[in-house]
Amino acid sequence: MAQRADVQDLLQTLRRTGVVDRRTYTQEQLKGTTDGVVYELAVAGETAYILKLDCPEQIRQVERFYEAYADSSLLPRLLQADPAGGSMVYSYVPGTTHIHRGPKVRWMIRLVQELLNQYQAYPGIGGWGRLEAPRESWRAFQERSAEDASRILAGVLPAEDHARIRGLIGRISDAGEPYLLHGDTGIHNFVFHHRELSGVIDPSPMTGPVLYDFTYAFCSSPDDLNLDTLLAAYDMLDPKPVDRTRLMEETFFQLYCRIAICVRVHPQDLEGYLQVWPYWRDLIS
């Protein structure tokens, strides 16, 4: 990965080679991944590009995702990727994450139509789940997800709920063929502009069924976690890989994992998730 002291040298090269406007300058350093760092690049006082510095493998994985779905109107435009040098540059998507997002059903439908319906099968990858740590099967990935969540939720949900989740895994483990997924389709990575979904950023690429990114997005905020919203968005998915019962079970499993993430990272949302948990538990009973 390029050192932070090298950013100005890198920017000079990007200007000289025409990747960015010759007037471009670094505006702000943003929070990146564990090993990475992100910079906003501006032109004439307006943010125009994002410069991401990270380890070569992470840059390579993100490049792969952006190139696979370059036609999606929701993804930034990849301008340059240099995995060996640990850097990439892509267009800035104006707006805000998390807030001013409008009804969930509206942005879920747009997500489905403009991104998820473009997903492509990714055969021959040799594993399921995170590209940097693939599992031998989708079931193995789900079992690990459930184990991790159960440890976090041991004092949050009753024992019978944990047992119910473990019992679901066998029914939702047949994933068909793997697809190249964004892997982190939550509202923290959704850009909203004028209360409409305008961008999806910061992929953490993985392989799995399209339904994973779909249910992850649906469960990524505690608002509008109801069956009507789920079905309205799912009706736009093409093709529809599972029936209604399986969709509800997949959503219940994803909600369980999301509550664990909430406890660890977003405790302010926990009350909202716990309020809706009995509703979903009753739906699949």
TrEMBL record:
<protein>
    <recommendedName>
        <fullName>Aminoglycoside phosphotransferase domain-containing protein</fullName>
    </recommendedName>
</protein>
<dbReference type="InterPro" id="IPR002575">
    <property type="entry name" value="Aminoglycoside_PTrfase"/>
</dbReference>
<dbReference type="InterPro" id="IPR011009">
    <property type="entry name" value="Kinase-like_dom_sf"/>
</dbReference>
<feature type="domain" description="Aminoglycoside phosphotransferase">
    <location>
        <begin position="29"/>
        <end position="234"/>
    </location>
</feature>
<dbReference type="Pfam" id="PF01636">
    <property type="entry name" value="APH"/>
</dbReference>
